[in-house]
Design brief:
The complex is a heterodimer of chains A (329) and B (623).
Chain A lengths: L27 H16 L6 E5 L14 E4 L5 H11 L4 E7 H7 L1 H10 L4 E6 L34 H7 L4 E6 L3 H13 L4 E6 L11 H4 L4 H4 E4 L6 E2 L5 E6 L4 E5 L13 H9 L7 E8 L19 H6 L3 E4 L1
Parallel strand pairs in A: 1-2, 1-3, 3-4, 4-6, 5-6, 7-11
Antiparallel strand pairs in A: 5-11, 8-9, 9-10
Helix pairs in contact in A: 1-6, 2-4, 3-4, 5-9
Chain B lengths: L1 H11 L1 E3 L1 E9 L4 H14 L3 E7 L14 E9 L10 E6 L2 H7 L3 E9 L6 H6 L16 E3 L3 H8 L7 H5 L2 H13 L4 H10 L4 H21 L7 E3 L7 E7 H16 L3 E5 L6 H8 L7 E4 L3 H13 L3 E6 L1 H17 L3 E7 L16 H6 L9 E3 L5 H16 L2 E7 H5 L1 E5 L45 E3 L14 H16 L17 E8 L3 H13 L4 E6 L1 E3 L5 H5 L2 E8 L4 H8 L5 E5 L8 H13 L4
Parallel strand pairs in B: 1-8, 2-5, 5-6, 6-7, 10-11, 10-12, 12-13, 13-15, 14-15, 18-19, 18-21, 21-22
Antiparallel strand pairs in B: 2-4, 3-4, 9-16, 14-20
Helix pairs in contact in B: 2-7, 5-9, 7-9, 8-9, 10-11, 10-15, 12-13, 18-21
Classes of the chains: A alpha/beta (329), B alpha/beta (623).
Chain lengths: 329, 623
């Protein structure tokens, strides 16, 4: 049963549906669901004005578990459905939930275009580097030589970096979160919500069945300090135990470099696209993995129209009567 | 005095009921422009008419080549005109390539007007002739008129300070002036049109007018004999305000009208494809009256966006041609499962694959009816003429919105591009499309159904208390939640099928378009074969044969009395521009005496082809 609730009074639990959650016990999706519900409550999201749209895959079950409007569509196409909804009603708050297969393989084209158009919505891409729902085949983000049912000898295609892809598409908001780093994830999702235009958030999500601990080299408790850099706008790019290392700039290579003296570290600026692209490219083992908000620099938003006619000067009747007409009496 | 002379010559004119003129020239010769003008001038001369542009597939072919020829056929006269004419009474060929590629359309003994000035050896060879067709007997069977139109045009505009190139560009209007003389058309509306069109370039307007007059004067002076001057009979048209409309325009305006009638925003999501794009172009110009168009990144995104529009409460429409429709089929399955209103327009072309994009065909009927995965019936309608596209578009939207279902609207490359006079409908007299959003939270779930239509409740985002989740996964009949229950899947499959069948309750009884409601012989068609079948049946009935014409607009579901009506004929011939898609369906539905008349050449049926097929069967005492 649905009931009308005043948004001011909403708590995370008010966004829960009566549907039994059907992800595997221990799946990273649970933590993300919890974070999203918490964000919705914090921002006072109106349930009736909010739509969660998804494609196909484990992540795409998400809408069934949020008590707003929701549309579980077809594989890879959620961005196109979302664009249509906003064309019909630009006042909706639309969240797209996708995965590395849904968003970057079958739906890569649509993700590209919703980002370059800068349609006003939030896009959450759960990256677990595997096809979970179809039982563990390698995905476009799987590392080279990944063994899976469809790549028993190891995968031979180079992986794609979602954040780099998004920046390449012209995204104006690009962030990376981690399922287990809830506090950071909540801050990222709030910033994504407040960003006007398309906000792209890649979330490293642990698939405990097919790809367990695949991100452990930078998300495990003992790896975070040395192998992850958590970005803060306006703060120096430092990491390591006690902030002992930093990310500096090598003018000859025109690229980032790790520096031993934090005093030589660059300052993170979320409005700098070149810096965002360089941070997105950083990969283990030479660099720490950058998480947090890489880029947040609003630009012109896709015009979905006001939903009303723009002038009273013409009607359809006038249109049909324009040009050459003749009367028969 | 002028009037006296004209009256004298008119007296010598040969009376004709209808005329087919085919204009052809190089892409750069302005053939389409003068074709349009001849159409308007004919409408203003109280003729009915139908026109068809036949332009090359190439964007800009080299000058003088056969594949760069652009043509325009127009059929006008003093009776109801239903086709563009089987063959031309007159061919205007402004260069050798135009003659080469169009001569086969001219009837034996017909008139051919060529620009002798373009028949230099180089042009002749480029067109694929070895010797000049003007001298080698090629045109022996025709009445040939071969003035040097290029030179005469330059002379006509000599008083204006135009360069040679600009002068020669007026030769289409010289030819038009000559044609106007031949068929007694008034030049004034064309002059007015030129003055408006070239308001910013008065010299160009003057030059084209001078060329038009030059061609007309040439006709008066040189060809003022009864052989080449005609008086075309007039037809009393029903009173009303008329315009010329193409199928694409009428379809686009029908969609816009449906949006107004239902009080919704039209969002038209499409990806460019021949020959469907003109609908997108027409609607893209209507932003100011509230129409939104979305040129998506691909066909799939286009239909998905349109479904998104429907989910959010708008009138979502997508449009394409066969190969593009194929890409949309998966998403149509979702629209069936989610039970959302959607109009899908297929402007069919010759397939499979790229096929012949500029040529027409009706070969996507099976795709429309059966192309999706799973048990996923949707209503299918077909428009039968350019102006009929307006009404059919409204009906498609009406069915989609009132029954919460995707609807396929079939047009084709012929109807889309053909034009004819259209008595503008009174928009205020069209019944409104009454649909309401569900807003009552009490007892709501998204698969609540209207007991009459079986349409599910349409609660749109923005409605407090009706938040719900839908998708492609099977739903429980009673709660709308995900369900894998076997009995429920049977029930939902049945109810989706029954919902589509109940559309038939809205369909008026099928009646013969011509002829008796039962008898020995009926010819059945759908879509754009209407014109040739209708004319053929009129001709055959005039000879005293009892033949009926039945034309289907509703292909899923059929009109409720269709089986009963067809059962009343001993012989049934089904004419289609495909290999037999409807005829097989009719036979499967119990009409086992149905026989096919099929054509897959990329061209519409000729009246004579249909007529011959019927007569052959009547003569053999077909049973």
């Amino acid at each position: 049963m649905n009931e009308v609730v005043s948004p001011a009074a909403l708590k995370p639990a008010d966004y829960a549906t009566d549907q039994e959650v059907r992800w595997c016990p221990g799946c990273g999706d649970y933590a993300i669901l919890k974070a999203v519900k918490s964000v919705l409550a914090d921002i006072g999201a109106k349930r009736e004005n909010t739509v969660f749209v998804s494609g196909i895959g484990c992540s795409s079950r998400f809408p069934y578990y949020i008590d707003t409007y929701g549309f579980h569509t077809i594989h890879g196409r959620a961005p196109a459905f979302a664009t249509g909804m906003l064309l019909a009603n630009p006042d909706l708050d639309v969240w797209i939930v996708t995965g590395d297969g849904d968003g970057l393989s079958i739906g890569g084209n649509h993700l590209l275009h919703i980002l370059r158009r800068n349609v006003n919505c939030q896009i959450l891409l759960f990256n677990n580097e595997t096809y979970g729902l179809t039982k563990g085949q390698y995905s476009p983000t799987s590392r080279l030589a990944t063994r899976s049912p469809s790549s028993p000898g190891g995968s031979v295609d180079s992986p794609l970096d979602p954040a780099g892809f998004a920046l390449g598409c012209g995204a104006r908001f690009v962030a990376r979160g981690v399922d287990t780093q809830v506090k950071q994830l909540i801050e990222i999702l709030k910033a994504a919500y407040h960003h006007p235009g398309a906000a792209f958030v890649e979330i490293f999500q642990n698939c405990i069945v097919f790809n367990e601990d695949v991100f452990d080299d930078f998300v495990a408790r003992d790896a975070v300090a040395e192998h992850q850099i958590q970005l803060e706008n306006g703060e120096p790019l430092v990491f390591g135990e006690d902030g002992s290392k930093g990310i500096g700039f090598d003018p000859e290579a025109l690229d980032l470099v790790t520096v031993d003296d934090p005093a030589n570290a660059l300052t993170h600026r979320t409005d700098n696209r070149n810096l965002a692209a360089a941070l997105a490219r950083m990969a283990l083992p030479d660099f720490p993995m950058a998480t947090g908000i890489l880029y947040d620099n609003p630009g012109p938003i896709f015009d979905t129209g006001s939903g009303v006619k723009t002038s009273d000067e013409r009607s359809l009747k006038d249109v049909m009567r324009a040009g050459f007409t003749w009367s028969v009496d | 005095m002028n009037t006296l002379i004209r009256d004298n010559t008119r007296a010598a004119r040969k009376a004709v009921e209808t005329v087919v003129v085919r204009l052809a020239g190089d892409s750069g010769d302005g053939i389409q422009v003068i074709g349009g003008q001849l159409g308007l001038a004919s409408a203003l001369s109280e003729n009915d008419l139908e026109t068809f542009p036949d332009f090359p597939a190439e964007v800009r072919a080299p000058v003088g080549t056969t594949y760069g020829v652009s043509a325009y056929q127009i059929h006008f006269g003093g009776r109801r005109i239903k086709t563009i004419g089987d063959e031309a009474d007159m061919l205007v060929a402004l260069n050798p390539a135009a003659l080469k590629t169009n001569l086969e359309t001219l009837k034996r003994g017909g008139i051919v007007l060529v620009d002798a000035g373009t028949f230099a050896q180089r042009n002749i060879e480029r067109a694929g002739y070895t010797t000049s067709p003007l001298d080698d007997g090629t045109l022996d069977d025709y009445q040939v008129m071969a003035p040097d139109i290029s030179k005469l045009t330059q002379e006509s505009v000599a008083d204006l300070s135009l360069g040679k190139k600009d002068s020669l560009r007026c030769k289409n209007f010289w030819a038009l002036g000559f044609v106007y003389w031949m068929f007694g058309r008034d030049r004034a509306p064309t002059k007015q049109w030129l003055e408006q069109k070239f308001a910013a370039k008065p010299d160009i307007a003057k030059a084209n007018i001078a060329a038009l007059d030059g061609g007309h004067t040439y006709g008066e002076a040189v060809e003022a004999s009864g052989e080449t001057a005609f008086s075309v009979q007039k037809l009393e048209m029903a009173p009303g305000l008329y315009r010329s409309v193409s199928g694409s325009e009428a379809l686009a305006w029908g969609l816009a009208a449906a949006a107004e009638l239902s009080g919704r925003d039209l969002v038209f999501a499409s990806y460019p494809i021949t020959p469907a794009s003109p609908i997108l172009h027409t609607l893209a110009r209507l932003k100011d009256i509230g129409v939104k168009t979305f040129q998506a990144e691909d066909e799939i995104a286009a239909i998905c966006a349109a479904i998104g529009v429907a989910y959010a409460g708008g009138l979502g429409v997508t449009s394409s041609s066969g190969p593009g429709i194929a890409l949309k089929l998966e998403a149509m399955g979702l629209a069936v499962a989610a039970e959302l209103p959607l109009v899908i327009v297929n402007t069919q072309r010759a397939g499979p694959s790229t096929g012949m994009p500029t040529k027409t065909e009706q070969s996507d009927l099976n795709q429309a009816l059966f192309g999706r995965h799973g048990e996923s019936p949707i209503p299918v309608l077909a428009a039968h003429s350019p102006s009929d596209c307006f009404e059919t578009a409204i009906e498609a939207a009406r069915i989609a919105l009132t029954h919460m279902t995707p609807v396929m609207l079939l047009s084709d490359g012929f109807i889309a591009n053909a034009s004819g006079p259209w008595a503008l409908p009174d928009l205020d007299a069209i019944p409104r499309i009454e649909t309401k959003h569900h807003t009552e939270p009490e007892g709501f779930h998204p698969y609540l159904r209207d007991p009459e239509t079986l349409a599910r409740a349409w609660a749109v985002p923005g409605t407090p208390g009706c938040e719900h989740r839908i998708g492609g996964i099977e739903k429980d009949f009673a709660s709308g939640h995900i369900s894998y229950d076997p009995e429920n899947h049977q029930k939902m499959t049945d109810v989706r099928a029954e919902k589509v069948e109940r559309v038939a309750r809205l369909i008026p009884p099928l009646e013969p378009d011509q002829g008796e409601a039962s008898g020995d012989f009926a010819i059945v068609g759908w879509g754009s074969t209407y014109g040739p079948i209708s004319r053929a049946v009129t001709n055959i009935r005039a000879k005293g044969h009892k033949v009926s014409h039945i034309h289907l607009r509703h292909l899923k579901p059929f009109a409720p009395n269709q089986a009963e009506l067809l059962a009343g004929y001993r012989n049934i011939l089904v004419a289609e521009m495909n290999a037999g898609q409807l005829v097989r369906l009719l036979r499967a539905e119990g009409c086992t005496n149905a026989e096919g008349l099929n054509k897959v050449t990329g061209r519409p049926f000729k009246v004579s082809e249909v007529e011959d097929a019927i007569l052959a069967r009547l003569e053999t005492g077909h049973e």
